[in-house]
Design brief:
The protein is of the alpha+beta class. The protein is built from 10 helices and 33 strands. Helix 5 crosses helix 6.
Amino acid sequence: MAIAIDFGTSNTVIARTNPATGEPETVKLPRISWQVGQNPPLIPSLLYVEDASAETVLIGQEVRDRGVDLKSDPRFFRSFKRGIGSDVQGFLPELDGQTVSFERVGKWFLCQLIHRVRQVPLPVESLILTVPVDSFEAYRHWLGQVCQSLNVEQVRMVDEPTAAALGYGLAERENLLVVDFGGGTLDLSLVRLDPSTAKKKTLGFLLKWGDNMLAEKSGQKVKTARVLAKSGKNLGGSDIDNWLVDYFGKTQGVPKTPLITRLAERLKIKLSLQQEAKEVYFNDETLESYELALDRDRLENILRDNAFFERLDEAMNQVLQQAKRQGLEVTDIDGVLLVGGTTQIPAVQNWVQQYFDADKIRSDRPFEAIAQGALQLERGMEVKDFLYHSYGIRYWDRRNKRQSWHPLINEGQPYPMSNPVELVLGASVENQPSIELIIGELGSQTGGTEVYFDGDRLVTRRVGSDRVTVQPLNDKEGARSIAELDPPGNPGSDRVKVFFQVDEQRFLRITVEDLLTDRTLLEDKAVVKLS
């Protein structure tokens, strides 16, 4: 049985295919799931470390039930997904003599989820995980490492917006824009759902598999979700929570604590359903009391003061420009799907309606569309995708006397590539024994995001537009060298020709030819996996 997990910054959703009906359903797990009104069962993405050395943790609703999320306690973690794979500024907590990174917290959370699923008991033979469209390779690599520790036969990965398009089941619509706006990220993805008569191939991106899981089903027709354009921002509901905490701190002098953050989150949720909201807290033991009130107009002003709508416009314009390069106008988009809790904010829905007619917008499955859509990979849905990030090689910029990056493969490149990219290199020093290349994943030209601590809060902050975030992929001992030179190289002439190509599994593969000796020094070697 396949289990799909939509690991979110604020909430996590687990889905499976009901064996009796054959339809996808959201799984409710005892003690860690919570459910309000008509919403599906959600698992709060919360974790409390009871013993770091023994890896004993509480997760989900049981963290709230014990009240440990309302105190300033370094053992309590929320929004930890945002710190995974990021260069976090500040000190990481040390618990029970161990430094606890966000990668460790995320691993504990996912492993505990699988453990709780099996306790139901439900079998977990195949696992499908969703990832933000704007995630760097570091996050995907971490996810792959976590999967290696799970006793699961097969693990697949698909990006969250594409899964959402499948989850809404609008197969009769051709071009769908998914606005996935959760607790930590805004992801926009324009996908085209096409029928295909091709035989079923390996679906999605396989992280881990057993030999018996790769058999083709001859003649089975599949549906193809082709990604046409993508855009993402490190922006979400937890940012709004922090802005509200800052607002109440400035106007009422309340402290910036987990309790106030929780009250601010409740206000935000209430304002999705009503014009005004109030949260009152009183502790009869400590006599601590707070009364926080907010209305929709004030909330919208707070969003505007933090350049919220400007950042939304940046993401929307980016995805629409990508679409236009493929000959698609706004009027060619057949449907707009809203997923994630932040899309329930009226101001966000009004923003979407500035771009699209209301009859094209769907918002009735904001929480479960991603997890249930990911299950389509098991049921015969093939995902065709392109590279979201650009990739380049590091070089020395003599004019500015600094290291810089030369673009090699641009974002939007479909894979597998039909034609390789060629690069001719020469030696830079006398008697150079080898050629080294450092390959980097280039962030958006519009700037990046810093992740840092403000007291107990994990906060993100935009960096300037003149900075490009780069994550080197092979800058470590033994990984930089791509070819040994015999005889050694000398400056003044071209020495090697390098061919770069991306295969169907997103591996960057390199072939190196020695122009001096007419020998092939490296042939079709996989160097790094791209995102």
